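tool_call: predict_structure(chain=1)
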Amino acid sequence: MADAELEEIRRARLAQLQQQGGARGGPSDGNQEEQRRQAEADRRATILNQILEPEAADRLGRIRLVKESRAADVESRLIMLAQSGQLRQKVTEDQLKQLLNAMAENQRKDEEEHKIVINRRGGWDDDDDLLDL
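tool_result:
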């Protein structure tokens, strides 16, 4: 994945969005923010298309339908791995499953670390005491 290629795609998309906004009388601050978000979404989609096999991209799309936040987390992790050079080839569906399982395991460990356990001690007014009968 070439950084120059990604930058060129980003600039072309931003120019296109600015041209569309200019035809309407000039972009406002809110419109610029929307353009920035759209350019970022396009950049992420381009990177994901380069690093995911079609089956893996399809599975990620189904995950997005069920839980948007989980899909965004997986996308961020994949993009980080790609940018750091840790991905040598396209990610297969099985590799995506392994990544999902690893992320789920980490989440479970985090939840266990923050678990609060309350032990209630029986007192003098314990209703479970059958000696009152």
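agent: The mean pLDDT is 82. Proceeding to next step.
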